[in-house]
């Protein structure tokens, strides 16, 4: 049995969101939903998440899982918003699930941003072990541990489809960075090779797409290609690429990359499973935003930004 798959592209962060449904029971999982954050004015809206909920209503799906592939550094997750919205509309409790190595990521970033321990407790309703099986209606899915981009990176094998998160990107984009805490290019190479060992017709649904800007190579955002197409065309890891080649190129590339535009806001919200910080000021959530200050200019090193 193959799932029904709905794709939704969020262009500001280049993020693919997915709804995966069982065709017989109408039970469904939502994968990597996005909250829309505008850093220029410190506002959050739920446009992208509400579009997913609209599909859920129109198709009369019952959501049984909200799946995160990892703690994202480039967008705010809408997992908690969707969980609460479903509950308010009469759905039973829907767990937010992620890989068990999320505890490492939470430890690193809770220390960096002074996140209280109590705000991490029960942030996620289920932590998947490697190759753990679970059900979406009559579909049997498998949680694949695919570290390298981050240590908590997971993929979800559902039918002949794998939702890969950031473990591999489309062939003309290649692969994701490995310079986040716990990231490792050699480990990512192994994870990608694992994905490419699946049958050639297996579809790999990526977590992001960044279509080329030049006119000659321009294309629309693409949610998936097959394992066979990745093996033939992925510019970073074709069949002829060695681990040493990949590590050397990936390391050189990562050394010149800047941080994702909203990484500080994203990590503080996402280690909490999508909840806002408990601290507030005049009804606004407080997020820490580190600023590099040359010695002697200012004594403070932290700017507090506000999220309405």
TrEMBL record:
GO terms for molecular function: metal ion binding; sulfur dioxygenase activity. Keywords: Metal-binding. Residues 14-208 form the Metallo-beta-lactamase domain. GO terms for biological process: glutathione metabolic process; hydrogen sulfide metabolic process. The keyword Metal-binding applies. Pfam families: Lactamase_B. The keyword Metal-binding applies. This is Metallo-beta-lactamase domain-containing protein. The lineage of its organism: Eukaryota, Fungi, Dikarya, Ascomycota, Pezizomycotina.
